[in-house]
Structures are given as structure tokens and as C-alpha cells.
Amino acid sequence: MSERAVSGRGLTRVATGLRRGAPLLILGLCLVAGLARARTFVYVANYNNSTIGVYTEDHRGNLVTSQTVPTPGGPESIVADPLGYVITADSLAHAVSAYRVNPADGRLTRAAVRLESPRANPFSLTASPGGHFVYVANSGDSTVGIYRLRRGRARLFPDGRVQEAPGATPYSVAFTPNGRYAYVANFGNATIGMYRRTPRHAALTSLGVFHEPPGDGPYGLAVGPDGRFLYVADFRANVLLVLGIGAHGRLSLKDRVTEPFDHHPDSLVIDPSGRYLFVANTSANDISIFRIDQADGRITHVGRVPTGGYPFSLTLDRAARFVFAVNYGNSTISRYRLDRHSGLLTSIGTTPEASDADPYGITALTVPVSAARHTPKTAGSHPVSGSDRKQAAP
User: Fold this and answer.
1) Backbone CA torsion sign across 226, 229, 235, 239
2) Which numeric CATH code is attached to 11-392?
3) pLDDT tens digit string along 107-143?
4) In DSSP terms, which residues pair with 206 in a beta bridge?
5) Residue 358: C-alpha distances to residues 47, 74, 264, 326 (Å)
6) Bridge partners of 241?
7) How far apart are CA 20 and CA 294, in angstroms?
């Protein structure tokens, strides 16, 4: 495997690194302090039985089930929106569904369902930074559907659409933290669509296309908290890319790291400090752990932990305490405690979903205690294509 070791070069470089990393360190400390008494809820999209599993996370990382919610059909992806909603991409129903979260207990009430085109196959979705907009990667018709989410009326409104190249097969969308730039992983033609976005507006303006080697199959995307680098999991090529994000949002290749053959990297998660990258390896049944060089974004492999069968999605609670993986192959959730100093993960157990639930997606929503004490009047909670996943799974 191509790895870049991170080494010190004397006290001057150490001091410089500390100065550069100080804002992120302070941000991380404030984040942890602010969420110390918050509550975290975890939501699992179960493709086969078309449900959402709703869980409350305790202080030890255990998941306590509280609800099972039916969906329109075949949810492949799930995301928690900062406005207090959970949203699913229901591929079998060609729909996008929004659910209102009760901040007191995390339970869900369905708020809206919007149908995509009959051949859309909504595969994954992403909430814009700060909420208000939802972007849906439709692998069937190579579009990105855009929706506006209104908190008071709890409804989804269509707000535009982006057309990728025919056969592009978009699998995921990622934003820079300031919401100014967006990127679309096109699995079918091995490209990444680059877009500019005006803050507080939905529309995406094309900046062109970043071309990967043919057949790489970009799948999962993640942007670091400083917004300088985009990380790409190339499922078919067993490769991780580090792409620099330029001053105008355009991408350039910084590093290309090869995972072992047939690992098939899938979902990516970066911890809030921006120091560690976690990669779900679908066919290897494990998670790779990488340290991120804060100066140039390059990654160094530091460890690996086993999961259940075919981990398709990862999430991390915003207090940066625990990482969760959903395992399609045996319908379980693997739980890990994160050491924020080393980035290493320690297994703390497994939570079963319903038999043959086939979980595809997972997300977490952290609610401050002050919000959890206020119960709203209405109370309620990447990937390969569906066909590719079924071929890989037992």
C-alpha cells in the first residue's frame, strides 16, 4: 500500500504545526465541551424491510432501540438535517421522505414524501451545511435532485435539478463546510462533478468535471472541516484519492493511496478535528483508519478494525466519542469507541437489526439538552449500486 509517513523536523516545525492547527484544536475542544451534556440519536435505513430503526445512544456507546418506522420502500441512504429532520432516499419507491425528530426522545413522525421520476433510483442524499436544502444523487437517470426543507410547515419543495452526463450514475454528493462548493461522485463514468453554490441558495453552477482513471468508480466522498481537501473512495479500483480544493473550488490530485485488492472502499467519515479518516471496506469486512496530515492533506494508514458482514455506511456522533457501521451482510450495527488522541477504534459491541433487514445507511443527530427538554407539539426519529451490492453480498 502507498502510504505517507508523518514525521517531525525539529521544534520549529512542531511549533508551526501547533499554530496552524490551533483554530481546529480550539474548535474541537469547544465542540466537545458544548456537546458534553447533549443527547445523540442514531437512525438506520433498512433496505429489505423498508424501515428506519431509531436508537438512543447512551454514554457508553450502547444503542437502545426506541422505534421502528415504515418507509415508502427500499431506503438506501439516510441523513440527519440540522433543522431537526431525518430524510431518506427510498430507491424502490423512487421517493424522498422527511421525518420530524422529537428532540426529547429522538422518535420520528413522517412529515413529507416527494416522488422522483420513475427511473430516478434515488441512491444517496446530503443536507447542505446549516440545513434548509437536500441534494439527492439519482443513480438511475444521472441527475441530482434539489429540495428545500421548510421547518415550520415540515415539507419538502422541489427546488431545481442538475443533469450529469448520460450514464454518469451519481452515487454521492459532498459540500465544503461553508456550503460554497459541492462535488458529485459519478460512479458510471469515473468523474467528479464540481459545482459552485451561493450560500443560502439551492442552485448549483457547474465548474467542470474532474476526470479519474477510467473504471475507478468514485463512490464515497468526504470533505475535511477546514474545507481544503476532498477524499474519495474509489470502489472498483480499491483506491483512496486526496484531492486539493482550490481557491475557486476546482480539484487537483494530491495523493492516491491503494487499499488491498478487493477491499472495495465505500463510506468515508472524518472526525470533527479533521485529523482522522475512517473508511468502510465493504468486501474486507473492516474499517481502515488513516491519519490526515494537517499541512498537505495526505493520509497515513494507522490501523484496521473488523466489522460485521459487508459494512455499507459509517457515521460518527458529533461529540466525537463513537463510530458506528451498518453491516448489510448480517443485519447488525458495529459500535466503536474513538480515541481522539490516536484515532484508533475499540470495538464495544454489536447491535442486531431485524433479521434480513439489510441495513444500507446510518446517520446520527446530536441534540443539546436545552432542546431535548422542549418537546414540540407534534412528537414522533454509499456505496455500490443496489444490483452491485446484491451481487457482492451473500
Assistant:
1) negative
2) 2.130.10.10
3) 999 999 998 888 999 999 999 998 889 999 999 999 9
4) 195
5) 6, 10, 18, 9
6) 232, 256
7) 8
**Checking phi first, is residue 331 left (phi over 0); if not, alpha (psi -120 to 50) or beta?**
left
The reported pTM is: 0.85
Edge-first strand order for the sheet with 75-81 is 75-81, 85-90, 95-101, 108-115
Give the model confidence (pLDDT) of 269-319 as tens digits. 999 999 999 999 999 999 999 999 999 999 999 999 999 999 999 999 878
Q: What is the dihedral of CA 316, 319, 321, 322, to 10 degrees?
A: -20
The enclosing H or E element of 388 equals: helix 386-392
> What are residue 265's DSSP bridge partners?
281
Please state the domain extents for the chain. Answer: 11-392
Q: Kindly tell me the sign of the dihedral angle through the C-alpha atoms of 187, 188, 194, 198.
A: negative
- When pLDDT is cut at 50, 70 and 90, the band that residue 394 belongs to is very low
Place of cell 415508502: 72
Q: 173-196 pLDDT, tens per residue?
A: 999 999 999 999 999 999 999 999
CA–CA distances in Å: residue 80 to residues 45, 77, 233, 284, 365: 12, 11, 22, 28, 6
- Helix H, strand E, coil C: the string for 172-218 is EEEECCCCCEEEEEECCCCEEEEEEECCCCCCEEEEEEEECCCCCCE
Handedness of CA 317, 320, 326, 330 (dihedral sign): negative
